[in-house]
Amino acid sequence: xxxxxxxxxxxxxxxxxxxxxxxxxxxxxxxxxxxxxxxxxxxxxxxxxxxxxxxxxxxxxxxxxxxxxxxxxxxxxxxxxxxxxxxxxxxxxxxxxxxxxxxxxxxxxxxxxxxxxxxxxxxxxxxxxxxxxxxxxxxxxxxxxxxxxxxxxxxxxxxxxxxxxxxxxxxxxxxxxxxxxxxxxxxxxxxxxxxxxxxxxxxxxxxxxxxxxxxxxxxxxxxxxxxxxxxxxxxxxxxxxxxxxxxxxxxxxxxxxxxxxxxxxxxxxxxxxxxxxxxxxxxxxxxxxxxxxxxxxxxxxxxxxxxxxxxxxxxxxxxxxxxx
Length: 324
Fold this sequence. Notes:
324 residues; globular; 32% helix; two-stranded antiparallel ribbon; alpha/beta
C-alpha cells in the first residue's frame, strides 16, 4: 500500500496518513489515519472510528485520552471525510466487510509499526456497528478495551416496521444497490452541534453536511446484514463500555429536546443490544446527552468523561501516579 503523510487539517501536531486500498467499482479508494502522540508516558493507543456522514474532528475527546498517556489515532474510512475522492459516492459501501482492509492496515500501523501492545478501540454510531463486527472476526491480541458512543445496533422504528422493512431492503439492495432511499433530514442534529448555529463545535460542512448524505439501498442492506450478525451475538473479548443519551426524541423544530436527547437513534435499542457485543459490557445512559455524547453540552459531557474515567480505571488501567 502506498503512503502519503501530511500535517492534518486539524493543525500540528496532528498528522494524517493517506493510504491506497484496492480499487472498487468506482475506481481509486483511499483511507486516512489521523494521529497525535501523547506527551505523557505511554500506556497504549486508541483507535477511533466515526459514524455516518461524519469524520474525525472530536479533538476534546482525543485530548482526554492523550492526557492519560494514550497515543490517539482516528480512521476516516473510505469515502468519508478526508478520504472522499471526487469520483466517489460519499459514505457508500455494499458490504461492511469492505472496511476490513483499512481497519487491518490501521491496526498494523498502530501495533507492528508503532509498537503498541495495548489498544483501546473506540467508535461512534455506524462505526459502533462496523468496528465490533471487525473485532469479532479479527480478534486482535492487542485489543485492551472497546468504547462505543451511541452505536447503531438496530434499525429505528417499531418491531412491525423492522420485520416488514428488512426483507424489502434485502431484495431492493441486492437488485438495485444504487437506488436512493428517500428520506427527510431536518438538519436539526447538525445545527445542535455546529458553532455557527446552536452548538459549540467547528467542523467541515462538506464532510459532515447539515442535511447528511444520500442513503442507498445497497448500503442499507449492508447495515441490516451487520445488525443481524451482531444480534446473533458477538464474542469481543475485552471490557466494553457503551455510552448513550438517556432518552430519544423526534422533534420537528429547534428546542430543548434537540439539545438534550438523541434525535438520531433509539437509545432503547442501544440498551437492548449492547450485551450482544460480548460478555463484559458496561452500559451507561447519560441524562441530557446528544447522539454523539462527547459533543453534548458541558454538564452531560462532563458526566460522560466521569463515567469513562471510572470504567477505564476499574476495568482497563489503574490510574497513573503522575495524573493523581
